[in-house]
Specification:
The structure holds two protein chains of two kinds. Chain A is α/β, with parallel strands linked by helices. Chain A has helices spanning 6-24, 58-75, 102-112, 147-161, 185-189, 207-210, 225-234, 250-254, 348-357, 373-379, 401-420, and strands spanning 2-3, 25-28, 33-34, 48-51, 78-79, 85-94, 118-122, 126-129, 165-174, 196-200, 215-218, 241-244, 260-262, 273-284, 289-299, 309-314, 319-326, 329-334, 385-386. The longest helix of chain A is centred in the last third of the chain and has 20 residues, at 401-420. The model of chain A has no long low-confidence stretch (mean pLDDT 84). In chain B, the strands form three sheets. Chain B has a six-stranded mixed beta sheet with strand order 5-4-3-6-7-10, sandwiched between helices. Chain B is an alpha/beta fold. Chain B is elongated. Chains A and B meet through β3 of A and β8, β9 and α9 of B. β3 of chain A pairs parallel with β8 (247-250) of chain B.
Chain lengths: 421, 317
């Protein structure tokens, strides 16, 4: 057994020794000699501090020492040192939108997993699984994978294993899509001083790219947005989507793998509710800003955007358009009124806004899977990382601490009753 | 021991405890004192009331042989007391007067409270009180007066009725020998009890109990014509306490525990001295013959001589 914070234990021992010493020091009136005329002595309180040969209130002393020692030991966080293994593994399992099927990763993991290994599932964030069996319940996320964050989580997991293993093997199970890499990935990878094993799984096919880059507009003939889509389809960075301006049919969301943009002319957009009419001075999609007066009639309530991605916002920050995943595709609800008066529909920033709204689900394509140098750098060279290299974690939970706190609490209750007696 | 040979053994006096030699030891303890006070007489301070003929001058004029004066005959006088020879010479009727003699019952009251058992190692206060009780009782009996004793004990008071028989001294010795000072029994009830049968009261105490009530009771009996003696027993250790005692406790009051260090000791000495002076003045002013007795400073027989000497009512110390 070892203590993660032994200072508390030393302090508790010192306090317990003080308690014992105090029980040997008693305050009492000194032994009085008989004097029949004592009434003529001026009355004044008199006590003397003397050292007793035996401790006063032995049971109380023991209880108080138990309280302090148990609480101190609990704060010192005792942990039982496990037997050491030659090596351990940290699995980084990709569950982002770039993964074709998470069951493939689970099958790969079953072959390599041993008790004591750490399994980390990541998409845009990373989380540690209690066992490899839990991986079967993991579903693919609709968000971009973040390999840098996963590597940081693997460093923390390796720190937790440093007392149990001599070396740590890093196993990455991922399609290694380009979107999962960022500028920090290489430098974070270098923090792991050892080689890594890469297991590539199948990447998800980006269907929006496969269907061609053009906006299919379904609306009436006098729709002002028709001009905009026509201009957008001629631009170089055009997107592919179905833009529906009239009533939405069930087939619109099930038959196509392309994003479905529902942008009603005057009806209520999906997921939106009516709001008091007002005028907003502009719209932004992050890279594109359109400054013009818009008569705002709809708003997206909080519940509607909980599982959605906001793809455009009004000038005051309220969502103007949201995206929700549906199966392999997604549906985009746009609550931006478009009027045919003026030059708004032919302005370049508005065309860019339409292109941005009609972009593939998730905002961008997954990118081609990484290969070559990028993967070689990720795999690294040399032996496995030595566990002693990883810093000891200070947030390890002590299984004995709750019991010790319980003992201290019980002793405190007992002390209360004994003291009252 | 010669005294006991003359007056009989302890067994003859009926005071021996079966199976023990304690009474004999007690008599041996008091024997030198009894020998020392054998010749002392204890005259009354003033004329006593009439009654059984005794050694003290009575207030009554009687027909004893000790002629005092003549008084003209008044109607109602006993014609037998007319001096007929003087009548024959002067042709006037005179009554021949003479002083009567009477006894003076003496009651000795001993304070046997816990404060009298001091100093703890020697019990000097109680020893002196016991010797004074025995010695004064012996002197009074030798003067022909009946002697009794009341010991104010923790339980009920021990009462020995005044008697003139020779064994009364032995009974007093036995009573004081069997008494251990303890408790905090008030003394004034014992004094009232003793005054009912005694013409002379001797109170031997340290006045650390019900001093105010005691003075009130004694004053009443002085006014009633009793001769009251107060012997104040004060230990030398009370006047000048030991420097080794940092804390002192009253044996009669458990709640009185006080530190006697530094200025407290000086204040104690000053207060106790002032209290003794006040006590002496109050009792003397009340007509009581006050005597201060300090064990070890004066022998018991010398103290008895001081107490029994005829004096004018002023306190002596």
């Amino acid at each position: 057994m070892t203590f993660l914070a032994p200072g508390f234990l030393y302090a508790a021992l010192a306090v317990a020794a003080g308690i014992a010493a105090l029980h040997f020091i008693v305050t009492r009136q000194p032994r009085a000699a008989v004097l029949p005329t004592a009434r003529f002595v001026p009355d004044s309180p008199a006590t003397a501090i003397v050292r007793d040969a035996r401790p006063s209130d032995l049971l109380l002393m023991l209880l108080r020492m138990l309280i302090v020692l148990a609480a101190g030991a609990a704060l010192a966080r005792p942990v039982i040192k496990p037997s050491r293994e030659p090596s351990g593994r940290v699995f980084l399992v990709d569950a982002s939108r770039a993964v074709a099927d998470t069951r493939e990763a689970a099958d790969s993991l079953k072959r390599l997993y041993r008790a004591g290994d750490a399994v980390i599932v990541f998409d845009s964030s990373a989380r540690t699984l209690r066992s490899a069996d839990s991986l079967a319940t993991i579903k693919r996320a609709a968000v971009r994978g973040n390999l840098s964050g996963a590597l940081i989580a693997s460093l923390r997991a390796a720190s937790s294993m440093r007392d149990r293993v001599d070396s740590v093997d890093l196993v990455l199970v991922s399609p290694f899509a380009a979107e999962e890499f960022d500028a920090a990935t290489d430098s974070i990878r270098k923090l792991w001083k050892g080689r890594a094993r890469l297991i590539r799984t199948n990447a998800r096919v980006d269907t929006t790219l496969a269907r061609g880059n053009a906006i299919e507009l379904r609306s009436s003939s006098d729709d002002a947005l028709a001009v905009t889509t026509a201009i957008a389809n001629k631009s170089a960075n055009r997107s592919g989507a179905r833009l529906i301006r009239n009533a939405l049919s069930p087939n619109d969301t099930t038959s196509s793998a392309q994003p479905v943009v529902v942008w009603p002319v005057s009806e209520r957009p999906p997921f939106a509710i009516a709001s008091s009419p007002d005028v907003s001075g502009g719209i932004t999609t992050g890279a594109t800003q359109v400054v013009a007066p818009f008569n705002r009639r709809w708003r997206f309530p909080t519940d509607s955007i909980r599982s959605a991605r906001v793809i455009a916002r009004w000038a005051d920050g309220e969502p103007a358009a949201i995206e929700k995943e549906i199966g392999q595709s997604c549906i985009k609800s746009v609550a931006i009124p478009v009027v045919g008066i003026g030059d708004l529909v032919i302005r370049s920033e508005f065309v860019a806004l339409v292109n941005s709204i009609a972009s593939p689900c998730g905002g961008s394509s997954f990118g081609a899977p990484k290969s070559g140098d990028a993967l070689a750098a990720l795999a690294g060279t040399g032996p496995l990382a030595t566990s002693s290299y990883f810093p000891a974690r200070e947030d390890i939970e002590s299984p004995l601490a709750p019991w010790l706190f319980g003992i201290a609490s019980l002793a405190a209750l007992a002390e209360l009753f004994v003291r009252r007696k | 021991m010669a005294l006991f040979r003359r007056e009989g053994t302890a067994a003859d006096a009926g005071v021996k405890s079966p199976g023990t030699n304690q009474p004999v030891d007690s008599y041996n303890k008091f024997a030198p004192l009894l020998d020392a006070v054998r010749g002392i007489r204890w005259p009354a301070r003033s004329q006593v009331r009439g009654g059984i003929p005794g050694a003290h001058t009575s207030r009554l004029r009687g027909i004893s042989a000790e002629f005092t004066e003549y008084r003209p005959y008044r109607q109602g006088d006993d014609p037998r007391r007319i001096d007929w020879k003087l009548f024959a010479r002067s042709d006037r009727a005179y009554i021949r007067l003479s002083n009567d003699r009477a006894i003076l019952p003496t009651m000795i009251v001993l304070d046997a409270s816990a404060s009298m058992a001091f100093p703890v190692a020697t019990n000097a206060k109680w020893d002196l009180a016991a010797k004074l009780g025995v010695g004064l009782g012996s002197v009074a009996r030798n003067s022909g007066d009946p002697v009794g004793m009341v010991i104010a004990r923790e339980s009920e008071p021990l009462v020995l009725a005044p008697r003139m028989r020779s064994s009364v001294t032995h009974e007093i010795i036995r009573a004081v020998s069997q008494t251990e000072p303890a408790g905090s029994a008030p003394l004034s009830p014992a004094v009232s009890l003793a005054a009912q049968t005694g013409g002379r009261l001797v109170i031997v105490t340290d006045f650390l109990g019900d001093a105010d009530e005691l003075l009130s009771v004694a004053s009443r009996w002085v006014v009633a014509g009793r001769e009251v003696h107060a012997i104040h027993i004060v230990a030398r250790e009370e006047i000048d306490p030991s420097h080794e005692s940092a804390m002192v406790a009253d044996p009669e009051a458990a709640d009185i525990r006080r530190p006697m260090i530094g200025e407290a000791r000086d204040q104690y000495i000053e207060r106790f001295s002032a209290w003794r002076d006040d006590l002496s003045h109050q009792w003397s002013d009340a007509g009581v013959l006050y005597t201060l007795a300090i064990p070890g400073d004066e022998s018991a027989d010398h103290l008895i001589r001081r107490v029994t000497a005829i004096r004018s009512g002023a306190a002596i110390a």
